[in-house]
Amino acid sequence: MTEKVLVVEDEPSLQETLAYNLSRQGYKVEIAADGQTALNMAREIHPDLIVLDIMLPILDGYEVCRILRQEMNVPILMLTARDDEIDRVIGLEMGADDYITKPFSMREFLARVKAHLRRVRLIREEVDSETALVRETIRFGNLTLDLTRREVLIDGKPIAMKPKEFDLLLYIARHRGQVLSRQLILERVWGWEFIGGSRTVDVHIRWLREKIEPDPQNPTRIITVRSAGYRFEG
Ligand code: CA
């Protein structure tokens, strides 16, 4: 099955370079040059990955990302114009999966694309095999992870989770009681070495705590192990 990549970029030369290199890897490439077209195309073609520039006409990349996140689970790789942490944090909050700062090496870009598509494929395969068996849930007291629906419930009520938060919670829950380093978590949940580094893990852990800890300031479910990482207690 050919994977579809939607490239959202308004600069013609970069558009062309990205499309050329992605096509050579065997991906089917579609191009949108502004935010509104990007939204329409994403809804229509259901891409397997979106490469999204931040500075775009009509709707900017943040806005496109925020809207798409409410509608679909597609990985979003953002192109940032400068190595600015603010850009990354805002993008993360909007639900982007990854960032690459311009100018970037084509080799690194393609490696990231490949890693994301691979991760999505693995998750899909896992979900498919789970759906084929039974609806699988993992329970920790009043906290339930529904693996089939990718839903988290507290006292039976669903909690809104970003896809990455769910992946992270599932990963640490499956390794309950083990100390997991930020690096290991990055590799297993994000699937590559994230440019933002361990801060990404910390930010997502903080969001998870706000959702699943009775008192997020004094966590009892996700414990910080000093200079080592995190441990899920259940
Ligand atoms: Ca641009």
Explain what you see.
- There is one protein chain.
- By secondary structure, the chain is α/β, with parallel strands linked by helices.
- It has 2 domains: 4-128, Rossmann fold; 134-232, Winged helix-like DNA-binding domain superfamily/Winged helix DNA-binding domain (Arc Repressor Mutant, subunit A), CATH 1.10.10.
- Helices cover 46% and strands 21% of the residues.
- It has helices spanning 12-24, 35-45, 61-71, 85-93, 106-132, 163-174, 182-190, 198-212, and strands at residues 4-8, 28-32, 49-53, 76-80, 98-101, 137-140, 143-146, 151-154, 157-159, 179-180, 222-225, 229-232.
- The strands form 3 sheets. Strands 2-1-3-4-5 form a 5-stranded parallel beta sheet, with helices on both faces. Strands 6-7-8-9 form a 4-stranded antiparallel beta sheet, with helices on one face. Strands 10-12-11 form a 3-stranded antiparallel beta sheet.
- Helix 6 (163-174) packs across helix 8 (198-212) and helix 7 (182-190) packs across helix 8 (198-212).
- The longest helix has 27 residues, at 106-132.
- The model has no long low-confidence stretch (mean pLDDT 88).
- Calcium ion binds at residues 10-11, 53, 55-56.
